[in-house]
Specification:
Structural class: alpha/beta
Largest sheet: 7 strands, parallel
Helix content: 40-55%
Distance between the termini: 35 Å
Strand order of the largest sheet: 3-2-1-4-5-6-7
Number of domains: 2
Shape: elongated
CATH class of the largest domain: Alpha Beta
Radius of gyration: 23 Å
CATH architecture of the largest domain: 3-Layer(aba) Sandwich
Amino acid sequence: MSYVYNFLIESVQFFGGFSSLMSEKMRLFYKGRKGVLQAMDDWNPGKKVIWMHVASLGEYEQGQPLLEELKSHFSDYAILLSFFSPSGYEIKKNNTLADKTIYLPLDTKGNARRFLKSQDFAMAIFVKYELWPNFMFALKAQKIPALLISARFYQKHILFKPHGSLLRKAIGCFDTIFTQDENSQKQLKNFLPHLNAVQSSDTRYDRVVEIAAKRKELPWAQNFAQDNFTMIVGSSWPEEEELLLTLLASTKLKLIIAPHQVNAKNINRITALFEAYKVQCLSNYKADEETRVLVVDEIGLLSSLYFYGNCAFIGGGFKTGLHNTLEAAVYAKPILIGPNYTAFPEVVDLVQNGGVQIVNNAKELENSIRQWMSDIKTTEYLGAKNYDRIQAKKGATLQILEKIKNTLDH
């Protein structure tokens, strides 16, 4: 299996650049990796290096709480951050948490050896799913401690398949694996009992608690909601927006919609959809008691915006893939989502705990909202269940940080 894998990786490195002629993402993928190894050879931080690797933006968000702790507690070390995907690197390449941010070179034997010899590495930390065999084997050969954090595995994962033997060898190179949930730990223990798998939690819980503590003040949102029952619609798609039309016709609900796609075409589509309900866009918002729908045509506000609503409706659960529910849950808001959520363990947990409810159609959505509008105590009780669950789940970052301290002290 390793021969096949190495042949494929070498082929991608040699021939893959041709695909950059057809795709902007692939162009960034290959162009960004040119000169990375030389840049690592030339980098002279004057310190030992703690290296964190993430796949893309979502994994960066999971690793960010730990990056912040590393920067605060380990000033004697330089922090290196690597990305696999352009969609993460291009957004976070100028972050201030890492001393150097790069693309991860492709996982060839030669790249892995040269990369790890370029610096005095004290530790490597991989986030969630990242298993690159040649890098893992090189870390093991050079006796560099390695952690996998916020890991999640399920029964049908390739790791547990007959053709997953190379990945099983690679994952054995980690000194400790911190899993997001109990099921992931059990899967590892059942199939690979020799691994040091520790159940912690998802570091995203720590992240949303931190974001909530530093939320932006949004006077316009406070002004719009006032004493009216207001729903925050987060990262919405057409499927959610269509359901809301019936709701507006039958209730006095007010909506603040932060669509997933913030571009002129989509914003115009949404405002046209809700034109019967005195809709405004944030960019031109003027306080008006008759306005019932406010469309947020700016990015970067949603994680603070949930604070101002009575409840939240999170987009993506009908078709595209559910968006972040934790950002709303941390503010003690009850949450509604579409039926496609089982791929997200944190959402399954919140559903089982009672603070997140599933709606399959406009009628179910209306029933839930009517109940919440008529019984504020129940609404607040369900929101409190979400808040309590977030608080109970936080702490993974400090658990991982303690392991890092103990490892580096030795």
